[in-house]
Task: structure prediction
Amino acid sequence: MDAVFSGLASGFATALDPFNLMLVLVGCFAGTLIGALPGIGPINGVAILLPIAYGLGFKPESAIILLAGIYYGAEYGGRISSILLNVPGDAGAVMTTLDGNPMARKGEAGKALSLSAVASFVGGTFAVILMTLFGPLLAAYAVTFSPSDYVALMVFAFASLASLVGSNPVKTLLGAVIGLMLASIGIDANTGVARYTFGIPDILAGIDFLVVVIGLFGMAELIHLVEQQARGTLKTLEIDKSFVTMADLARTKWTILRSSCIGFFIGILPGTGASVASAVAYGTEKRVQNNPKSFGEGDIRGLAAPEAANNAAAGGAMVPMLTLGIPGSGTTAILLGALLLFNVTPGPLMFQQRPEIAWGLIASMYIGNIALLVINLPLVGLFARLLTIPQQYLTPLIAVLAFIGVYSIVSNPHDLYMITLLGLFGWIMRKLGFSLAPVILGFVLGSLFENNLRRALSISAGDWTILLQSWNSIVLYVLTAIVVIVPIWYGRRVAARNARSEDESPKAPA
Amino acid sequence: MADRLFAGALLIVAIAYTYIAFAILKAPFQYDPLGPESWPQILGCVAIPCILYVLWRPDVASFDLEMPTWARVGALFVLLMAYAWVFQPLGFILSTLIFCFLLSLMLGAKPLKAGLFGIVTGVAGYFVCTRLLELNLPAGKLFVGLL
Result:
């Protein structure tokens, strides 16, 4: 416990440094702004601004504080377009539209916005507190992980990714494998053999992480925005004078706490971020309340639940990234790649070796959450006005920002073609129902996965049974089996129940 | 159909990938049990069954896009490739000016406003990025002496 407090104190020393403090505020403000823009979510915002933040030459802790601020700021801001426009910025904000938009149409837009800001604040802060308490414990335990345990952890990460993210598990898995394949391009560090480079000098060192991120989350989003262009103009609802009352908060306090818990723990699961968390929280709340009629027609609990959950998930997703080096969501995969760009390897040793980064980031999230609440309550009208920025100017700006970002890092025009082609590839994948987050997770984890497997087999001199020889890995494989089997079993049960007639008494689940 | 086309293309790539992994990749000498070829072999063996499953049970029939939308996406792609092509030779200001003008025009802005938007983005973007943020952007052959 002492270590937690002294760590936190040193973290606040880093985060309260005037320059870093300014970056927290800038990040939160920019994040809310990006999140509020229709169609652009946290992952796109972080992706587009990452190379620029990198190019500015900040210290690693400053850069990561800025990017994390953009990340959870955008989780806050996403609710604005969901509520006022009925257009979610990303998958994590979809559930917010279900009750948030009907509230706004009933003339309670002000109330919806302020209540969701409070719910977001509670969810976010709750996650940071749990992260402060459990992060160092998990890291201290993870130090004992051997390479074969890491292999098991990756298998678990990809299994939970495939089974919980996206509609089609096979496509999600295939997306992750495509990411892993992309990561295998370039010179193999152990033997110096060039793999899949076909003699092209630009990719000898591998495909640049920034190029993949900008391509898949900047350019693909741009193509998607242009494709959606003709489908009608967006109409913003007015913000009225209604405001959240103590009675509303009293009515939703258990909802918010429950959803924060759900969000945090789903966020921790590798690969599953805000989108799964908010959906599960909404579903749970609907079941707990037993009166699902009002849900979907502007129930304040239906608004508070997903908002608390998606912000808690954003914090929860940081936990495995900081302690294990395995990102908990697509956006944290990008943050992890950002740390790697700065030659910082996130993992169990980071709390000891680079405390200014690990603790500085955690402390900055306390500050950021408070700042976001303060920014979001009075200034929501300002952000709402941004929703009316005409798309014809916003869209070219995304392309220009992406080009600036990629060019300013390596000044290689070859990368500009690469991001455009990857963007087209990403757009096609999206159209076909693949989600892109698994691709980036696979890409980021590729070398870690391969190196640990090779190390494990070097230790055992080629004996594959080493993968099953420690309790850590056995437990992880059991968890993997659970995470794969339970959703299938649950899906079958729901399907069976729907098939049966309603008056028949439900049998005990087999 | 769309799913099958994409999966078919992926299958060809994945087979080539796996073939290279099994037949070509080889370290001249190595001490470790797993060489540079083992990991790609594993990936190939996971990817191919996944792709075959998608081929067997596709779930997206078509892209469901109308002709004008296709044209717009195609035009955007051409514009982006052209932007990438002229980015270095023409320099940031001129290439961005033209790109922003054409794209915003295509997306329905009035010509005058689109032109103004292009000029502001190109000029202001250049000075903010190079002078204020100290990022590296191409000045272009025409402007080297001027800026």
